[in-house]
Amino acid sequence: MDPIDRREFLRIGTAGLLATAAAPAGAAQTPPAIQRRAVLGKTGLRVPDIGFGSSRLDGDEALVQHALARGITYFDTAESYTDGASETTLGRALRGRRDEVIVATKTSCGAATTRQQLMQALEGSLRRLQTDRVEIYFNHAVNDRARLRNDEWSEFAARARKDGKIRFTGMSGHGGRLVECLDHALDDQLVDVVLVAYNFGQDPAFHERFTRSFDFVAMQPDLPRVLRKARAQGVGVVAMKTLRGAKLNDMRPFEAGGATFAQAALRWVLASALADALIVTMSSTDAIDEYLGASGWTRSARADSALLARYESRNGNSQCRYGCSGCAGACPAGAPIADLLRARMYAEDYGDAKLARAALAGAGSRATACLTCSDAQCLNACPHGLPIAELALRAARLA
Ligand code: SF4
Ligand code: SF4
To answer: CB of 391 closer than 6 A to ligand 2?
Structure first.
């Protein structure tokens, strides 16, 4: 076997390396591909362990086709992603392949949204996706139980199912009230699938073992409980926000243990056994091939934890914790602090100003409150030591 340089090893991952090692001399390298599929609870939907997150997809049909060629057959989108271009791109790219894939999309059902509005939203998504149905329709970014108490969603969903426009429904969430919203949705049997922010930084055990010195508080210690409850009920669980910020490039110098940071983070989720599958935003063919190095893993490698802990120590002071509401009420002007800090992450870490602006779209003038703030009462409001005023101001400048 010809020597494989480190960069190539990182790109193809261990599974690819094993395939390469087994290949006869001179044979073409096996490209990385999905190694495992899982069934999403009682839905019976069979999905790859790593799915295509398309929050940044905007016209690149070849990227979708690259993912398809690698065995990725689960595509997650939303009406709001890239102002609808994500759905439009998927619709074009999946023409002729629709029956081979599972498509999930989302709309936001508020406490007062009507069934007619929901049906209009679904029909808009179906038009952009060039399809007559989606397999999963999520209530997007649910952060308030009042949104789950709106019976219009159930009425709409029953009608849409009867018409064959959706097969299953669910909720997605990453806000401060994620656990109580999940409990509510599960107790009232409102969901077939949940899409939940879940990554190594939300694992109480990870915090206890590796990050005690700089961040003692584990976020949402109840999250594992509620995910176990979902799985016990046969509700499919898909993890998102799996890279904990996706600030990838500054980890390259430390990736000496056989995996990239991204592969270690994805392996952690897959090894947790709390999610059936995960999605990760895919924005380049190289990134797809790198992520596929984690497919098939059901346990973390020995060196992964050290790499993840290093990421946490380097980025913990700018990374707002998913599912945290520790600073709620700290801003007298009502600035949406967690949304602002998430927008900062999108703009600065993902390099995606458009996504950042979309994250602030619903906040109105509160999104720019920091621009004229004179007393920064949010100072010291974050129990994790995040400099809220400074980070929020950077986001407010984008709004
Ligand atoms: S700024 Fe700190 S307290 Fe506020 S949501 Fe983020 S992590 Fe939690
Ligand atoms: S800087 Fe001022 S406006 Fe911005 S979050 Fe802090 S207190 Fe609110």
So the answer is: no
Domain that holds residue 61: 31-315
Does the pTM surpass 0.85? The reply is: no
Query: pLDDT tens across 44-60, in order?
Result: 999 999 999 999 999 99
Average pLDDT over the chain, rounded to whole?
A: 87
Ligand 1, atom nearest to 384 Cα: 2
Query: Does residue 302 sit within a domain?
Result: yes
Buried b (16+ CB within 10 A) or exposed e, 99-127: eebbbbbbbbbbeebebeebbebbeebbe
Task: Among 331, 371, 374, 386, name the best residue to mutate to test ligand 2's pocket (greatest count of ligand atoms within 8 A of Cβ).
Answer: 331
Same-domain status, 257 and 390: no
**Ligand 2 within 6 A of CB of 292:** no
How far is 166 from 177, CA to CA, in rounded Å? 27
* Residue 255 and residue 221 in one domain: yes
Q: Is the pLDDT score of 25 beyond 60? A: no
Any atom of ligand 2 within 6 Å of the Cβ of 333: yes
Q: Of 84, 246, 104, 241, which Cα lies nearest the Cα of 178?
A: 241
Residues 269 and 122 in one domain: yes
